[in-house]
Write a structure and sequence with these properties.
The protein has 272 residues and is an alpha/beta fold. Helices cover 33% and strands 22% of the residues. It is built from 9 helices and 11 strands. The strands form 2 sheets. A 6-stranded parallel β-sheet has the order 2-1-3-4-5-11, with helices on both faces. α1 crosses α8 and α5 packs parallel to α6. It starts with 6 loop residues before the first strand and ends with a helix.
Length: 272
């Protein structure tokens, strides 16, 4: 698909991330905000999405289904829940739309279902749309390959706000996957997601995860490489959801010019 000025629809427009996405599209001169979707039968149906997002009246009324906006947009941005996202993905495939997916918490079956659409719809799927996080992933790949199996223990520590429903975060899992792949390990085999009681000493190859949920933390991730005498910490901290929103808008611009396929932010940023 290709369009000079892609028209963007945002699903979940009344939520915290949805409102931030509205602001991000409004600030971007290369895209146009075209539609906003709220939950079915929401009392906010018909509200001006600019006013919902604190951007002032934009003349775009919220609708409660993608079908109501099918002729209005080229690319959908979706940061919702796994089942909602998969339904929206099917809709975009059917109607020739692109989609940017920032939804996390998809299980193996849901990921397989998402992957089934790779030949039918141009999609960017990434657990984190931040440019900084995706540069961090490249740094982690470099660090893991340089350190190899030289006796470095690896821990992934992440912190988010108290309302986040999945743990570890999708970004933390992606960081663990990048490190594991760079070391020739399987995260499923070597990932350790819980230590309770007499858990014993760590194994040489395990990749540990620790999760914090508190207050209004937007997102903090650290990967720790520790050995006798030194430790290396690679950290990314987000202070505003706008960093994710701007990355998603950048991805929407990019995917509007791509053929069907499953892409990630490494593709968008030209880091592969």
């Amino acid at each position: 698909m290709s369009t000079d000025t892609p028209r963007i629809a945002i699903v979940g427009v009344a939520g915290r991330m949805g409102r931030t996405l509205v602001a991000a599209v409004e600030q971007d001169a290369q895209t146009r905000l075209a539609a906003g979707i709220v939950e079915p039968q929401s009392s906010l149906k018909g509200a001006d999405i600019g006013e919902l997002a604190g951007q002032g009246k934009l003349g775009i009324s919220a609708v409660d289904s993608l079908a109501s906006a099918v002729d209005d947009f080229d690319v959908l941005i979706d940061f919702t829940t796994p089942r909602v996202t998969l339904g929206n993905l099917a809709f975009c495939a059917e109607h020739g739309k692109g989609i940017v997916i920032g939804t996390t918490g998809l299980g193996d079956d849901e990921l397989a279902e998402l992957n089934d659409y790779r030949d039918r719809v141009p999609m960017v799927f990434a657990p984190n749309m931040s440019v900084g996080v995706n540069l961090t992933l490249k740094l982690l790949e470099t660090a893991a390959r340089a350190l190899g199996d030289e006796g470095y223990d690896i821990e992934v520590i992440e912190a988010h706000h108290r309302h986040k429903v999945d743990a570890p975060s999708g970004t933390a899992l992606k960081m663990g996957e990048v490190v594991a792949e760079s070391l020739g390990r399987s995260l499923k085999e070597h990932g350790v997601f819980e230590r309770v009681g007499q858990s014993g000493p760590r194994s040489d190859k395990e990749i540990g995860f620790a999760t914090v949920r508190a207050g209004d933390i937007v997102g903090e991730h650290t990967v720790l490489f520790a050995t006798e005498g030194e430790r290396i910490e690679i950290t990314h901290k987000a202070s505003s959801r706008m960093t994710f929103a701007k990355g998603a808008v950048r991805a929407a611009r990019w995917v509007s010019e791509q053929p069907a396929g499953r892409y990630d932010m490494q593709d968008v940023l030209g880091l592969k």
